[in-house]
Amino acid sequence: MLSLLHIENIAVIESADIQFDRGFNALTGETGAGKSIVVDAIGAVIGNRTSRDLIRTGARSALVSALFLELPALSWFSENGMGPDEDGTLLLQREIQADGKNVCRLNGRPLTVSQLRTLGQQLLNIHGQHDGQQLLDSACHLSYLDRFGGDQAELLAFQEAYAALSQVRHEISALQMDEAEKSRRMDSLSYQISELERAGLRVGEEDKLAARRKVLRNAGKLIEAVEDAHRALSGDDDSAGAASLVMEAEQSLFSARTVSDEVSALAEKLTELRCAADDAAELVRDLRDSLEFEPGELDELESRLDVIYRLKKKYGATEADMLAYLESCKKELDQIQYSSDILARLEKKQAVTLKEAQMLGSALSTVRRESADALEARIQKELEQLDMPKVRFHVEFAPNAAEYGMDATGMDEVQFLMSANVGEALKPIQKIASGGELARIMLALKNVLAENDDVSTLVFDEVDTGVSGRAAQKVAEKMADVARHKQVLCVTHLPQIAAMADTHFSVEKGERDGRTYTAVERLDKTRRREELARLTGGAHITSAMLESAGELLEAAETYKRGYNGEK
């Protein structure tokens, strides 16, 4: 459950700490006071998409922290190697910075927004006031049915088979071309293959040629430098070289090495220096002997580099890329030349994969139809409890209109039908449902789906839009029923729903020093009566309104004592 929510610099909330309890928590307040900002903050701390525009004006960053307790062993914990502390507490934090960066932590350990979002989906569900509009989109209905039916294994098996079928179809399509196009493509490939093979490319050749060209372009300077070095080290007819001079110095000191330890040490150093000079002289001599340049070599080298340059512009940035392109051209040419044989093999493979996809798609459809019967019964029961006993709800199936009667979702097209009145035919929900009916149907659907997951906290943001009177009372009772098994946080304008809450918060907006501030207050029984009276009658609260609010609270307590088995 969500135990504590800390908010800093989110919109008009400078700082707020909200201590939620088990059961049913309600938040009320005037329109624009900032109730939905609390929901936005909850969404931010569980990884929902957010914006730096959420940061309070004048602040450099915003921070939301959420403390969760009594969590089950979620799969995310084992998959990511992180989880609650030894005392069972899980602290999530998300800092939103003005430059758009996000810093997310779990018990002080950093994690990505993507990781936070995946974890958040297992911690709580947020149902917004616009979720009802999803019922108007029949494309969403199939996903609702799959969530209820828990048919992920069947769906994944089908999707793997469908992906294999799609791959084969793509390969067949790539080979199917008219004769003129085939002839043009074969000519183009043959020319490219011939050009690349004539070039005889070798990996690393260009780098070696470029290095040799640098030597050739500076041949005179290089030869002169090497000759000078050789003369300095080895000498010539007119003078001794450095190696000979060092050897003479070594021999002079060597004859007197027994006279002094200092002379002996210096003689050893000269021996080392003479050896090094001899080695250097030999290396320079070898280098001089290797500096042989053929006439025209530079021109040939430049010509070869030009060939490689022109090929690079057409076929790839490196020799390896061009050789890889050559292999792909050969493979494609072979496929075209032998396309008839390849097509025959692929068509056989397509028949096998199509049969496999159809078999798995039919199995998925069977599971879905069984789930649809159960969903209809559950939704019907929920709607009866929400003061809609005459409404009929039905899941309609139709064959998928895509090629082969299937797409990545399966072989079914699904839409929800309803009849709002006795004697009326079933029709698509989007054509006949009113705003209040949509809200209650969506609430029923969310409650049914929540029964099948491990999410322990449900957040409802003004999902009671369009509901009033007796229907509002039924929605309140349904919220209380759900709160017996899960923690419920609900933003509402309805006194019936607020009265049913176990814990009630008031969100109020005010001004101080020319700035707008929002505060969240946990209400005691007296303040609850006043807030319920305000929700009922507005700003001018009378004693009759307060008395009515008290009766509303007492009726709510009586209802909850009833399902708790109390008198």
TrEMBL record:
Residues 3-510 form the RecF/RecN/SMC N-terminal domain. Pfam families: SMC_N. Transmembrane segments: none annotated. InterPro entries: DNA_recomb/repair_RecN (IPR004604), P-loop_NTPase (IPR027417), RecF/RecN/SMC_N (IPR003395). GO terms for molecular function: ATP binding. Signal peptide: none annotated. One of its GO terms (cellular component) is bacterial nucleoid. It comes from the Bacteria. Keywords: ATP-binding, DNA damage, DNA repair, Nucleotide-binding. GO terms for biological process: DNA recombination; DNA repair; SOS response. Belongs to the RecN family. This is DNA repair protein RecN. It comes from Intestinimonas butyriciproducens. The lineage of its organism: Bacteria, Bacillati, Bacillota, Clostridia, Eubacteriales.
